[in-house]
Amino acid sequence: MSDTNLPSLDTGTDRPALLRGWRPWAILGAAAVIGLVVFARGGKKDAALNPAGRPVPVSVSLARKGDMAVRLTGLGTVVSMESVTVKSRVDGQLLRVAFTEGQMVRAGDLLAEIDPRPFQVQLMQAEGQLAKDQAARDNALADLRRFQSLVQQGILSRQQLDTQSSSVTQFEAALKADQAAVESAKLNLTYSRITAPTSGRVGLRLVDAGNMVRATDATGLATIAPIQPINVVFSVPADHIQQVLAQTAKNGRLPVEAWDRDLKSRLGSGALAAIDNQVDPATGTVKLKALFTNEDRALFPNQFVNARLLVDTLREVIIVPTAAVQRGPQGSFVYVVKPDSTTELRVIEVLGTDGDETALRKGLSGGETVVTDGLEKLRPGSKVALPKPAGAKG
Question: DSSP label at 207?
């Protein structure tokens, strides 16, 4: 049987034609798939940037019109007006400690007592010597009066009278020395009672009763730190010193507040007392000193605080939370929420900042709503979801 009528199984000669037949369709299919992927990705990207997309949850606050204080804040240290180390002025055994550690004392209060008996003996000796020399002086003075009478009668020579007069003068000098010794003994006896030289809080006891104390001891018995009133020394940038000087000349003593490290709790209120006479070249700051009455004793010596100096008050300005103010190439700006819950980028001019509040020179009006949180997801025209009022359902 002949094979001439059967189709040939060798497709070698027809393969290029077959490939030419399905290649365009494959290319078109791949292009379609790629287009769908690109479209899908582009659609997601456009949705993310689309201001009319899903509302962005944000926190908002109202801009208000009012007065805002302008303060300079600097890290400060609480310093006692005078810190005293209580020491003994005489040598002796410490008999008694009359204070409690941490106790508030007044000037003149008894703090400790040294054995007074050696000083009492010294006083008795000095008084005895004084009495002895006083008797000798009285006797020499009586002889002088007799010698004067005898000289007038021509019985004694003038030389004998002069000698007796000199003896009286020597006894007078001895009496002065004896009186000084008596006063010194009395003073040492007084020093055996150690009293507070100033009012304040007593620190920890450095010497216990029974020990020998000396006037040359370096440590002393304790320290006293006055805390009412008390000072706070803090620094402000040298760039602001002219403003401080101008306000001081205009308004007198500027108010100063002392706050804790986190600026959450106010510890006291005082007034600026002194300004240093030079700028610290290492830090570029100027030291200031403020005086606090410290009635509630919240300020403690050597405590670190944040001092806030009031240098000015801005009147009738627009105030917004500092968190709402953003900065970009166009300058400072805020996002304003319009009545249709879309955002508008508003360029502003900042007048001053005081902690959580910022005063604006222009760009906003009182009562407008600004975004304070969720700013990183916003674009001009973005739809926002405002927080529900407290107690609202749903």
Answer: S
Helix, strand, coil proportions of the chain in percent (round to 5)? 30, 35, 35
In this predicted model, which residue has the larger pLDDT, 30 or 21? 30
Q: From CA 365, how far away is CA 348, in angstroms rounded?
A: 11
CA distances, 393 to each of 346, 385, 389, 390 (Å): 33, 16, 9, 9
Measured distance CA(370)–CA(146) in Å, rounded: 111
316-340 burial code (b ≥16 CB/10 A, e <16) = ebbbbbeebbbeeeeebbbbbbeee
Question: Among 37-51, 88-102, 114-128, 141-155, which stretch is predicted with the lowest mean pLDDT?
Answer: 37-51
Q: Using an 8 Å Cβ cutoff, are 109 and 86 in contact?
A: no
The vertex-81 CA angle with 113 and 203, nearest 5°, equals 40
- Which residue is it, tokens 């304003």? 336
Q: Do 349 and 310 meet the contact criterion of CB atoms below 8 Å apart?
A: no
DSSP character for 373?
E
Over range 141-170, report the average pLDDT.
85
The closest alpha carbon to 363, from 341, 336, 343, 389, belongs to 336
Q: Which residue has the tokens 């997309």?
A: 53
Q: Which domains does the chain have, with CATH numbers?
A: 56-68+315-385 (2.40.420.20), 72-81+226-314 (2.40.30.170), 90-114+192-225 (2.40.50.100), 116-191 (1.10.287.470)
**3-state SS, residue 113:** strand
Show the tokens assigned to 229: 């009133």
- Cα distance between residue 228 and residue 199, in whole Å: 9
Q: Using CA atoms, how far apart are residues 56 and 282, in angstroms rounded to an integer?
A: 48
Report pLDDT for 28: 56
pLDDT at residue 49 above 70?
Answer: no
Answer yes or no: is pLDDT of 67 > 60. Answer: yes
What mean pLDDT comes out for the span 50-68? 82
